[in-house]
Amino acid sequence: MNRRERQKAIREGMAAAWPICLGYIAIGLAFGVIARRMGLSLLEIGLMSLLVYAGSAQFIAVSMLGAGAGFLPVVTTTFSVNLRHLLMSSTLSLHLNRLAPGWTALFAYGVTDESFAVNMDRFSRGGWGWRQALAVNHTTNLVWIMSTVAGGIGGQFIPAGAFGIDYALIAMFISLLVFQLRGRLHVLVAAISGLLAVAIAVVLPGNYYILAASLISASAGLALSRVERLRPDKQGKP
Question: Which of 18, 61, 185, 231 is the most buried (most CB within 10 A)?
Answer without folding.
Answer: 61
